Amino acid sequence: MRMIENRVFRVALVGCGVISGKHLEAILAAGQKIVALCDPEPEKANKRALSQGLTDIPVFTDYEKMLDEVRPDIVHICTPHDLHAPMTITALDRGIHVLCEKPLAISEEQLQAILAAERKSSALLGVCHQNRYEPNMRKLKEMSETDCPVAGYANVVWKRDAAYYASAAWRGTKAHEGGGVLINQAIHTMDIMQWVFGMPEAVTARVSNDFHQGEIEVEDTAICTFEGKNGILWQFFATTAGSDDFPVQLNLSLASGKLIEAMNHQFTVDHRVLSGEDDTGSGKWVWGNGHKALIADFYQHVRENRPFWLNGAEGAKVIRMILAAYRSNGARVRIEE
Question: CATH homologous superfamily of domain 134-254+318-334?
Answer without folding.
Answer: Dihydrodipicolinate Reductase; domain 2 (3.30.360.10)
